[in-house]
Amino acid sequence: MSDACSSEPAGAIRAIDKHSVHQICSGQVVLTLATAVKELVENSIDAGATNIDVKLKECGAEQVEVSDNGKGVEEANFEGLTLKHHTSKLRDFSDLIHVETFGFRGEALSSLCALSVVTCHESSQVGTKLVFDHKGHLVQRSPHPRQQGTTVSLQQLFSTLPVRHKEFQRNIKKEYAKMIHVLQSYCIISTGVRITCSNQNGQGKRSTVLSTSGSQSMRDSIGAIFGPKQLQSLLPFQQVSPTENIIEEYGLQNADLPKQLYSITGFVSRGDHGVGRSATDRQFFFINNRPCDPLKVTKVVNEVYHMYNRHQYPFVALNIAVASECVDVNVTPDKRQIFLQEEKLLLAILKTSLISMYEAGVNKINLNYTPLPTSNSGPTQKTLQSFFKDSVKPSTCSPSMKSPSKPARELTKASPVGRSVLDGFRYGSVSCADTDSEKDSAVSSCDVGVTMTTPEEVIDSSSVKNETFKEASEKSDTVPEDTDLETEAPEAKRARKENPHFPAEQKSSTFSNSFEESSSIVDAPVCLQRRTVPLQFSFQELAGRMRRLREQQKQRAGEELQYRRFRAKINPGDNQSAEEELKKEISKDMFKEMEIIGQFNLGFIITKLNSDIFMIDQHATDEKYNFEMLQQHTVLQGQKLIVPQKLHLTAVSENVLIENIEIFQKNGFEFLVDEDAQVMERVKLVSLPTSKNWTFGPADIEELIFMLSDSPGVMCRPSRVRQMFASRACRKSVMIGTALSVSEMKKLVVHMGQIEHPWNCPHGRPTMRHLANLDIISQD
After folding, report:
1. Are the C-beta atoms of residues 619 and 603 closer than 8 Å to each other?
2. According to the UniProt entry, which residue ranges have a biased composition of type Acidic residues (predicted)?
């Protein structure tokens, strides 16, 4: 009894030991390879380094080493380098507002891997090697030769967390790609700092992944990372004040907006189609030179870009400068998420500036346009002739005009071939509202430029139709409500075509009369005959039909249902069987067990598996089988180039290509690889795949590299190769309308269990449908 009283209750709350606390908290800070490298590179930049060298082994799975030529670590700071809550940046909480450096998570790294540091402070004559345990305590120090600066080495990252370490090893290629993207952001923003990164796999040669020259220009750094081709597509960001419309869109008050709060510099892609990217893989945002992920800013940039290039994404490198008291970077441990004051103002500035930049480059029809003179008496013949000479193509004359008047023939003869009907109209610059608004004025310029062809038709289309509709609507007692004016008055149309609108002497004279006078000659009242159709109706017959309908409904209600949706009852005892009935699935190994019932409509195979009936599209399933066989086994033949072609790949893309060169060879691409050449010039294209009328090129290589970055080592094809295989598979497959024997149908069904994705054809059409389950049909 006393023992029971002295022991703690099972659910007692007690403190976690310090070692576990350290591991838990630190493990929440550094989650990925990218975060670990970020911490080390930021530490070097804080130390004033102008040269940073990142060396990886096995893409970072075995070792990460970062060396710099910064100030180094003073001996007094050796102990606190990796201890929790130790920093040289802060004295109290208020100092957080003015922190402009990155910081260093030494305690996090020491808890996750074997951490060693070799450093030489600017005041020291010799360097020192420091070894730390997983609690962050210094366990070993020894003299070590080194020039000024620091080298931090991480061995076996995440080795102290078995589950995370196993996942890290499994996804190392993806981790590596994300790390490179983060490192690229520091290369872009850290002007004056030379950053290099290299990787060594096994005992192979160390290959450079990326390298910058330490230029003071962001543009030069972008060129060093992504090559000169990327620079050709960039526009320097030009900041302008937000317009009133956009200020109103974001719900801002113009009078209350702070001036000069944000200053934005950087580069974005041009809006031309073809110069953008197929994904958002080259978008970098910075707040006060700190790489970050501002989601709303990213969304605005892409939305504006899609207004001008809807099928691609831009390259973006934008640095947003703002007062330190207006930004909070301590939102997440990796400091990638940031809170901003007046964020809507920033979005308004971005949107206005980008629209202004892209509008300046949009091609427009910029032709001189003089509006038609308008007066109460209408335009003269000379005015109309001069307008039509400039705007009417020969092909725009109406074919229904069998004998056009002399002015019309002259117009057609004088108009230059190739002039557009749109001449004189600039997109968005002329509207019907800009012309004379009086009822008796000339037809608006919009109508003339788009729909008019001859002077006679000007009056015919503008006056006759409108007046006819007006009179018809006023005389509603002579026109049935459901009558279509265009279809109910063919004689009115015929009269307008057969009878000339003007006497002969009027055609040769000028149009001195107003449109109102001309309309009075043409617009004769149209009399429409009302037609009466008798309808046979009998209340007795209607009552009889209603009576029979009610009897049929009663009869149906009294009959029992001929089938049940489910055999399982709704009661606790049948829960298991009900769940089994609802959880029915089909797997690929079931296809060989299916029984062939027959062929339906010379296009579908009806099969039975236990009590389930399926319908299989014979063409779609054979097409998918043939497609996957082509995908797996076809080696495209290459066509040798006369001269090897430079590809201008980035260092990262170049490495992806070299590591997956067998996959490129299966797709018909052959390369000449020179390991000793300069980075971004190690690979040259020597052979391109060709197949009948299909040709492929560098764009397909870039697409393959993009796919292999996410799935390294996986056999994949460019989208255009897939299209070619899909076309060939379609042509060689069993067609709809072909009669099949039982053995032929069985062969097609068995094939479905032998391919990777049997559920849809290459074009997305389903290959099969479940028709019914025989058990739910009543046996009565």
Report:
1. yes
2. 479-489
Q: pLDDT tens digits for 526-538?
A: 666 778 888 888 8
Q: Are residues 626 and 741 in the same domain?
A: yes
Cα 222 to Cα 393: distance, rounded to the nearest angstrom: 50
User: What sections of 362-498 are H helices per DSSP?
Assistant: 381-391, 406-414, 445-451, 455-459, 465-474, 485-488, 490-498
pTM above 0.70, yes or no: no
Residue 305 sits in the same domain as residue 415: no
Radius of gyration of the chain (CA): 39
Domain identity same for 176 and 121: yes
Largest CA distance in the chain: 130
CA–CA distance, 55 with 72 (Å, rounded to integer): 19
The two tokens of residue 779 are 């046996």
3-state SS assignment for residue 164: helix
Q: Residue 412's Cα: distance from chain center in Å?
A: 48
106, 119 contact by CB (below 8 A): no
Kindly report, residue by residue over 478-532, the tens digit of the pLDDT.
434 443 434 444 444 444 444 444 444 444 444 444 444 444 455 566 666 778 8
Tally of structural domains, the chain = 4
Co-location of 182 and 285 in the same domain = no
The single-letter code of the amino acid at 104 is F
Beta bridge partners of 685: 645, 671
| Contact of 233 with 91, CB cutoff 8 Å | no
Per-residue CA distances from 284 to 231, 323, 339, 598, 631 (Å): 15, 20, 17, 60, 36
In contact, 225 and 210? CB cutoff 8 Å: yes
Bridge partners of residue 607, in order along the sequence: 596, 614
3-state secondary structure string across 344-387: HHHHHHHHHHHHHHHHHHCCCCCCCCCCCCCCCCCCCHHHHHHH
Q: Could you tell me whether strands 612-617 and 768-773 are parallel, antiparallel, or unpaired per DSSP bridges?
A: antiparallel
- Pairing between β-strand 283-287 and β-strand 207-211 as defined by DSSP bridges: unpaired
Neighbours of 549 (CB within 10 A): 9
Residues 429 and 395 grouped into a single domain:
yes
Helices (H), 585-677: 618-633, 651-659, 661-666
Contact 155, 113 (CB under 8 A): yes
Contacts of 718 (CB under 8 A, 6+ apart): 667, 696, 700, 703, 704
Is 375 inside any structural domain?
Answer: no
Segments forming the whole domain that contains residue 436? 381-522
Q: Are residues 393 and 503 in the same domain?
A: yes
